[in-house]
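Example 9 (inverse folding). The structure is encoded as follows.
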């Protein structure tokens, strides 16, 4: 189906504010400015020297803000002020205004200056960022995305330490009482840890082979956790980071000494320092200022020491998703048997034993799956759900752990198998979260039929899996030849075909032309240079275009991990599911953070004819 999509997003470029000329005398004598002067043989050296001098002056000013407000741990006011200013200077102070005072051959004399109003604006900007992280943490806590909640609360706490009004800033969590963040944020994090529960579901004890595995059930207020990271003590070092999925976590001991441990020590992640690299302010604060340690993040659990005390498998009770009218499958037993043969082959590492169960395309995905990392099937207590849609049978879902030799992070994914009418496995995908599924399944009939909703779920899982398995051949067909691509603050648009796209409005839009082939070429470079790619969808909002057309807009908060790169941001996809066998992405946008008004790009930014 050919669609005309009119792009109506207005991208505002950052414009330098035109200021009236200020005299040197006014800067130095009015008392309204802080300033520094530097000399050098080049303009760059003189400017850098002037900025260093300015930072010294700002440090003296900041010292006055923190007099009498420091803890013993934070040390002297002067040293603390220097640390605080560093977190600003590396982020914001490069924008301090510059003036050339003298230039003679190889001699330059430069002034850098900033008004007190602009200095206060830096603190005000940081206050707004603190409040934004607190709000994001509260929303994540409400949605039981505990990893996000802890990260956002901690980052807000870190930024708060560097604010001159840290002992005054409050936040209204319950719309009734404003709480002082300096004490409320640690309390919020500790409350989460207090209600977080780790339970040993099952023990694999093969210590004669120097191997022991503990399968964990992680819950919060009785609900399986779907967004949390932890490390565990191996006897002489901490493990890789383990990502919890659907309440499941795996602990493995690989030597005789650790096999004899009688206690499991777990440390829940909350600082997320690698992710902080993508917010330079947070990263600078975490690396320059002492932040309080949250000791309740550590858990100690007794490990059963003999057969009589081994834990029996505890069945996970996920929130039910109602697709009952799709579940009328006559040969369910045969379908389950097929999937169990694949599971046995993976567990026995005799992967080829299951090859005959796949179609050629399914076998290609299976081989990519088992070659994408070290794979381990986790206990699932026969919680498989079978769903019939069109001529396919979908089997959901088998939990598997993926680890990578060059990576310090392990992932748990719920693996979904799709069988064709001949009951051969035609596709493998990684499931989106139960919450994301429930968000779609709970929509009214006006949103779409049960089949429509499941097609949408399948598309999201297909999209995620294609990237995780680095399958360019799966990604290429789902992008329209002239799909709009927006990355950050730069618009990328394919050349118009038959008037398909037309930019509305007269305001200037800065964009770079990149056709589909160029986009896929870039993806190929990314895939080839990374041992693994993992995408995690933390939240999603799905809307439908008005009318009978099956055009949907999906806004997704996405965490992206790969061997040598990671980022976070917001993804928007406009997809057409009119042909469920050939879905098309007409628009793809990605932005590292929300817009200034808190929104992200979506259907309202496009007009479809």
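The amino acid assigned to each position is listed next.
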């Amino acid at each position: 189906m050919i669609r005309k999509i009119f792009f109506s997003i207005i991208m505002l470029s950052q414009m330098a504010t035109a200021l009236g000329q200020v005299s040197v005398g006014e800067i130095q004598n009015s008392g309204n400015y802080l300033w520094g002067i530097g000399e050098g043989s080049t303009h760059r050296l003189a400017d850098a020297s002037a900025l260093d001098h300015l930072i010294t002056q700002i440090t003296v000013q900041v010292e006055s803000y923190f007099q009498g407000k420091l803890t013993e741990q934070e040390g002297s006011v002067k040293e603390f002020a220097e640390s605080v200013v560093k977190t600003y200077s590396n982020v914001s102070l490069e924008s301090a205004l510059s003036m050339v005072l003298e230039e003679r051959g190889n001699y330059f004399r430069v002034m850098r200056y900033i008004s007190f109003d602009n200095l206060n604006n830096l603190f005000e900007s940081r206050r707004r960022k603190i409040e934004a992280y607190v709000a994001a943490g509260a929303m994540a806590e409400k949605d039981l995305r505990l990893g996000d909640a802890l990260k956002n609360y901690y980052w807000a706490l870190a930024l708060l330490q560097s604010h001159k009004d840290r002992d005054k800033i409050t936040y209204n969590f319950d719309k009734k009482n404003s709480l002082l963040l300096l004490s409320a944020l640690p309390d919020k994090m500790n409350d989460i840890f207090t209600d977080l529960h780790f339970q040993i579901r099952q023990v694999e004890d093969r210590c004669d082979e120097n191997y022991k595995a503990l399968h964990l059930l992680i819950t919060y207020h009785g609900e399986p956790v779907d967004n949390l990271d932890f490390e565990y003590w191996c006897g002489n070092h901490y493990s890789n980071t383990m990502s919890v999925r659907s309440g499941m976590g795996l602990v493995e001991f690989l030597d005789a000494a650790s096999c004899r441990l009688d206690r499991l020590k777990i440390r829940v992640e909350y600082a997320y320092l690698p992710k902080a690299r993508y917010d330079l302010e947070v990263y600078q604060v975490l690396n320059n200022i002492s932040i309080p340690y949250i000791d309740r993040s550590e858990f100690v659990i007794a490990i059963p020491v003999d057969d009589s005390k081994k834990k029996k498998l505890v069945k996970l009770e996920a929130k039910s998703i109602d697709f009952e009218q799709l579940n009328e499958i006559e040969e369910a037993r045969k379908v389950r048997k097929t999937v169990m043969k694949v599971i046995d082959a993976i567990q026995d590492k005799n992967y080829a034993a299951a090859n005959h169960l796949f179609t050629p395309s399914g076998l290609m995905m299976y081989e990519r799956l088992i070659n994408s990392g070290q794979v381990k099937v986790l206990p699932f207590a026969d919680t498989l759900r079978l769903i019939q849609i069109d001529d396919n049978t979908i089997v959901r879902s088998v939990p598997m752990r993926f680890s990578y030799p060059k990576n310090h992070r392990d992932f748990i994914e719920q693996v979904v198998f799709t069988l064709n009418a001949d009951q051969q496995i035609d596709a493998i995908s990684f499931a989106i979260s139960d919450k994301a599924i429930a968000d779609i399944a709970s929509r009214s009939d006006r949103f779409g039929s049960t089949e429509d909703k499941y097609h949408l779920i399948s598309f999201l899982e297909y999209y995620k899996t294609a990237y995780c398995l680095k399958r360019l051949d799966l990604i290429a067909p789902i992008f329209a030849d002239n799909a709009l691509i927006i990355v950050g603050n730069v618009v990328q648009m394919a050349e118009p075909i038959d008037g398909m796209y037309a930019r509305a409005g007269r305001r200037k839009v800065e964009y770079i032309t990149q056709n589909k082939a160029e986009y896929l070429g870039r993806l190929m470079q990314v895939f080839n240079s990374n041992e693994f790619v993992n995408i995690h969808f933390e939240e999603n909002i799905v809307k439908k275009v008005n009318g009978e057309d099956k055009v949907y807009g999906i806004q997704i908060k996405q965490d992206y991990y790969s061997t040598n790169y990671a980022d976070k941001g917001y993804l928007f996809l406009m997809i057409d599911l009119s042909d469920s066998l050939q879905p098309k992405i007409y628009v793809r946008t990605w932005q590292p953070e929300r817009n200034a008004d808190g929104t992200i790009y979506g259907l309202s930014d496009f007009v479809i004819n």
